[in-house]
Structures are given as C-alpha cells and as structure tokens.
Design goal:
Strand content: 15-25%
Radius of gyration: 27 Å
Order of helices and strands: EHHEHEHEHHHEHEEHHEHEHEHEHEEHEH
Distance between the termini: 56 Å
Shape: elongated
CATH superfamily of the largest domain: P-loop containing nucleotide triphosphate hydrolases
Structural class: alpha/beta
Helix content: 40-55%
Length: 449
C-alpha cells in the first residue's frame, strides 16, 4: 500500500468512440462522472491522498502514450503544480504507454489493473487469496517487462540455447518471474484440490449453501454480519472483503444453511483477476442459492447489476441456472425519496425473487430469510421412513445426510422419521432404503408440523 502522504491525481479517460472503449474492455453503460467517482474510491482504498481528479475525453488512442502529446504536457504541468507523486489512470495501459507516461509526468503511473491489484494485495489474508493475488500480480508484472534497461544487457555466449552469465537483466527477471508463477500455480492446484474436498465434505452435510455476490461496496459483508451475527470486515470501501467467509445461519422454521460471503465484483475487472479468483468464485456456481446484493440507492445500480451478471456469465452461470438467484435490493434506508421507495415496493410485489432490505437497520431481513426458506423448500425432497430399534446406524445416516424434520417413537419401539434431502442426496437415500422410503409433498408444511 502507498503511504497516506502519497499525493495522487486520479485521471479518468473517457473514450469518445464506443468501439475504442469496447476494444479495451470498458463498460459504457455509466456516466464519466460515475466512473471518475469509482476510480477515486479505488485510489482512496490504497490509502493515497487524492489532490486532483479530472475527466480526459479521448477521441483517438495514441499507441505511444494513450493520450496526445499536448494533453500529456498539460497533465505534466498539473502534476508539478500539485506536487503529485502518483497518477492513477482509470484505463488499461500497455507497458510502453505506462513507461512513456511516467517519463512525461515524472511520477509513478498506475492503470486500472495495477490499482485493483494493489487493493487485492492488501485485502487478501487467506493462503489461497494471497496466492491468487500474487499470481495475477506476477502475470501483470511480466507483461510490464519492456526493454527499458538496455544498458544492463550483455551479449550472450554460444548459440543462446541455455541461459547463464550472458543473460540480459530483462531475461533474468522474466525467467525468475516465470519460475515463481510455476510454483504458485502448483501450490494453487493443491489448494484447489483441498477446497474441492471441503466442498464434497459440505455436500455430505445436510445444509444448503447460499452465496452472496454483488458489486463491490453493495453491502454484502454488512448483510452477512446481520444474518450471521458475526463481525466480518464491513467498511465503506471498495473491495473491503476479498477472502470468502462461511457461517451457519438458522432460517425461521429451524432449517440451517451455510452462508458464504465472496469478493465483490466491479466493472471492467481485468481478465487475469477473474481467472485468478475462478477457484474461489466456483463456490458461487456450486451454491444452492445465490443472493445478488444490489445497492439500490446507487445511481448506477442497473449498470452495476449488468456488470455482475456479465461476470457470472463469464464464470459459466447460464440462463437456466440463474433461476437460483434472489435479488436483494439493499440500502433501502439510503433511499430518501418517497416516490422512489413506493415504486420499489410496488416492483418488489410484482417481481418474483426480489426483496428490499437494509442490512444496516435490519429492515426487510425477515422477508429475505423467508424467501430463502421458500426457495429452498421448493427444491427440497421430503420423505417418511419407519426404522426398527436395531437400525441405529441407519438413523444416524439420516441425521448425517439429511435434515430430520420430525421424529417420534411409538409403543412398539419403532422410530418414525420425516426427513428432508437435497436433490443431490435423495437418490443415495432411495438406493439405501428402497421402497421403505416414502415420498411426501415438498414444502414448508412438514417443517411447521
């Protein structure tokens, strides 16, 4: 992280040409002012002092420095005037462009990818998260190795088939980075296998997994804390949470779920970061339900929603699987306009799978829990079975693989059990118990009896 005394200028490059923006992976669904505000938030998240911020319209992309020579000179004067040590450019820069801008401005330059990597490096705390961030950072750094230090190069001896004393500094750095990347990828494979084993272990537990997703700073961690009575870091910062956290939550009728908080999404998220966190985000794909938390008070809430859906699509969540999504319209307490509130309430009634809440005050949280329970009940399969006194092991299996809703023992010593299975476990139970396992109507009625 940068020291808090580091003075920074935040520069948002607004591409006039939609094709130019599209070519650089830029979302065009929000205003330039909103993009600048988000870039300032990202810069603040790394602890710098933002001394100036401006929007730079760009008609033609210049290969050497992205911006034209006149604009580069103009900003150089601003950098000197404001005594800035860092310029944050809210766009993706090529290695050559970054190097030329640093020379032209006599200051450190960070593009959007580099800035997000800085934040991720600070926020990751688990072993997996740290490895994923380091891998993305090394891949980014490797692309930044341009021939800017030719004075360090030495002529290599022989035919160049082997490295050695004749290697250039550039080649040494590339080789060391590639070796480190290979080691991290190997470690991540081990971590991913461990995560996969944990996922399979959870599959044997009769608790469904509900994953929170959403645009960064939408209030996921605040909602997570509200639902779980825990104290996961929840601040008004972009990417306040990076590592996934899981807690047990009890629903109104006593059913238990595992709630998972995940990394926040953001527009124009660099491909390497999506790839790096794929293993973590697979938790979302395997969840029984997905809660898409939206900051309904934000002026760009619709655009943010589109960005989240785009990332989910990139991860492989198709249209059919999106039926598992519940939209949680958060921060209703921050909506001060009465007419907007009434419109949201009306839309909530008409739209299945959406609920307005305030994670901060608790408003609407009961409705959310009920909606989660109803959605899970639709997918659940409920059965009845009768066991003899000698079948203690079978009873234990029902408790370990299903959710026992009701149990009673009659005067003959027989145990009558009503049990709920998730769809993935039900076939195993049918094989184990055969025709003795009687299907009942799915729903909340059995849980309430």
């Amino acid at each position: 992280m940068y020291a808090s005394r580091t003075r920074a200028i935040v520069l948002h490059v607004e591409f006039k040409s939609r094709s130019a923006a599209r070519d650089r992976g830029i979302a065009s669904s929000r205003s330039a002012e909103a993009k600048l505000e988000e870039a300032r938030g990202l810069a603040s998240a790394v602890g710098v002092e933002v001394v100036e911020e401006l929007i730079v319209p760009l008609g033609t992309v210049q290969p050497k420095a992205l911006l034209g020579a006149g604009k580069v000179k103009e900003i150089a004067a601003l950098v000197a005037e404001r005594d800035a040590e860092l310029v944050v450019v809210n766009a993706q820069l090529s290695p050559v462009q970054q190097r030329n801008l640093e020379k032209g401005w006599n200051a450190k330059v960070l593009d959007r990818t580099g800035l997000i990597l800085e934040i991720f490096g600070e926020r990751a705390h688990t072993r997996e998260g740290s490895l994923q961030v380091e891998l993305a950072h090394l891949q980014y750094q490797k692309s930044r190795l341009v021939r800017s230090w030719t004075h360090l190069e030495r002529q290599r001896g022989g035919f160049g088939f082997l490295g050695g004393p004749g290697e250039s500094q550039l080649e040494i750095d590339r080789r060391l980075i590639q070796q480190r990347i290979a080691r991290i990828e190997s470690e991540l494979k081990t971590v991913t296998r461990t995560r996969s084993l944990h996922r399979r272990s959870r599959a044997r537990v009769p608790y469904p997994v509900v994953a929170l997703v959403g645009y960064t700073n939408a209030g996921k961690s605040t909602l997570f804390n509200r639902l779980t009575n825990s104290n996961v870091m929840a601040e008004d910062l972009l990417f306040a949470t990076l590592d996934p956290t899981m807690r047990e939550v009890e629903l109104p009728h006593g059913r238990k779920i595992i709630l998972s908080d995940t990394v926040g999404f953001i527009s124009d998220l660099p491909t390497m970061l999506v790839a790096a966190f794929r293993a973590t985000l697979e938790e979302v794909l395997s969840a029984d339900l997905i809660l898409h938390v939206r900051d309904i008070s934000h002026e760009d809430t619709e655009a943010q929603s589109v960005d989240v859906e785009r990332v989910l699509g990139d991860l492989g969540l198709d249209e059919v699987e999106r039926r598992r999504i519940i939209e949680v319209w958060n921060k209703i307490d921050a909506v001060s306009d009465g007419e907007t509130k009434r419109a949201l309430a009306s839309l909530e009634k008409r739209r299945e799978g959406a609920v307005t809440v305030s994670a901060l005050t608790g408003e609407g949280v009961d409705k959310l829990l009920t909606l989660i329970e109803n959605r899970l009940a639709i997918a659940s399969l409920i059965y009845e079975i009768e066991l003899s006194p000698e079948e203690g092991q079978e009873l234990g299996w029902l408790y370990s693989r299903g959710e026992v809703l009701k149990r009673s023992d009659d005067e003959h010593g027989l145990t009558h059990v009503v049990v709920r299975f998730d769809p993935a476990v039900a076939p195993l139970a049918q094989v184990r118990f055969g025709e003795r396992l009687k299907a009942r109507e799915s729903g909340l009625r059995a849980a309430a009896e």
